[in-house]
Amino acid sequence: MLKIRILGSGTSSGVPRIGNDWGACDPNEPRNRRTRASVLVSTDTTTILVDTSPDMREQLLAAGVSNVDAVIWTHDHADHTHGVDDLRQLMHIRNGEPVRGYARPFTREQLEAKFHYAFFGRAGYRPTVALETLSDSLVIGDIRITVADQPHGGIVSAGLRFDSEYKSIGYATDFHEMTNEMRVLYSGLDIWVVDALRRAPHPTHPNLQQVLGWVGALHPRRAALVHMDQSMDYMRLTAELPPGVEPGFDGLEMRA
């Protein structure tokens, strides 16, 4: 059974933002409390972590997960990478075996520059992650991953499709434009978890109207919105979204 767990459904500042800023979000609705964006994709035998957010420790504790078969980084921005140090505990659980990691060439270059010690070790400390280049297609356990580069401001992020036993899940975060390669990647999914930062336009993220248009064109069986800021109240969104589309929240699990 292929499934996805939304570990974090928030944007880079989370909800609430520091200063107890809930914006338009009702603080009494627990699904409005959002940590930084990350997901787990898994079957009965394989678990893949996508991104290492600054909230990764609490996210994995909440999910009851202490080991993964691989980590995939979508891009090198801080809200998707700065929990990398917490992979050290996973390495210890694996009896010193580094966690497998994958990133596109530019992202890999940036990660190795920023967190050199995590990938190469330092002063007697062994490497935490065995990092490889993320190719256009690979298989981890019983999950096939297909990748397309997504425009995200001046860089690209990795758009991801996961297939296993005729079921499919797509994860699209941190992009601002839908390319033809992305349309192919995300067509006909069972589940599409997709960035919908806010209602107003943004230069490097999609807004709600754009995402709903793509959902209508790509026809996922079910779609969940993530990477949402403090303007996106859970109950208000639930009332206005079309059938088959829902606001994601931290801890939501969906089975394809």
Automatic annotation (TrEMBL):
SUPFAM superfamilies: Metallo-hydrolase/oxidoreductase
Domain Metallo-beta-lactamase: 35-214
UniProt signal peptide: none
InterPro entries, sorted: Metallo-B-lactamas, RibonucZ/Hydroxyglut_hydro
Gene3D superfamilies, per database record: Ribonuclease Z/Hydroxyacylglutathione hydrolase-like (3.60.15.10)
SMART domains in UniProt: Lactamase_B
A Pfam entry, by short name: Lactamase_B_2
The protein's name: MBL fold metallo-hydrolase
